[in-house]
Design goal:
single chain, 137 residues, mainly alpha, Arc Repressor Mutant, subunit A, three-stranded antiparallel beta sheet
Length: 137
């Protein structure tokens, strides 16, 4: 396997995953970016704006626009940080938690579909490789 072949496979995997994400949010009032923010907050429970921006790979300015929109939709709320008066934490509202739970179920189903074509050993290796690669990028 060459790096060029691997790059092509990664792009193809990304495109399929991206297409799946767009399909899942179609018909909801959310964009994939907004749903990703909800997904990350749902897993972390509470994050500083800067932490969320880093996890999403966006600037804090871009994140502010996303958070403003999600706040207007009453899916998240900003709360003052307990010890740092200059900082805010973002958390899911009850409605945001419902979106997170529903979307996370889709992720679990997709992962089950992918895992179904792998042997237990391949699944273990795949998980280890993903973990290693994610730490690098």
């Amino acid at each position: 396997m060459t790096v060029k072949m691997l790059a092509r496979q990664i792009v193809e995997f990304y495109e399929k995953l991206s297409s799946w994400e767009h399909e899942v949010v179609r018909g909801s009032e959310l964009t994939p970016g907004q749903m990703h923010a909800i997904e990350i907050i749902g897993h972390e429970k509470s994050l500083r704006m800067k932490e969320l921006a880093e996890k999403l790979g966006v600037t804090t300015g871009t994140l502010t626009v996303t958070v403003d929109k999600l706040e207007r939709k009453e899916l998240i709320e900003r709360r003052p940080h307990e010890t740092d008066r200059r900082s805010y934490r973002v958390v899911l509202t009850e409605a945001g938690q419902k979106h997170f739970t529903s979307h996370h179920e889709y992720h679990v189903k997709l992962t089950e579909e992918m895992a179904s074509v792998l042997s237990p050993e391949e699944l273990e290796t795949f998980g280890e490789v993903l973990e290693k690669v994610v730490k690098q990028i």
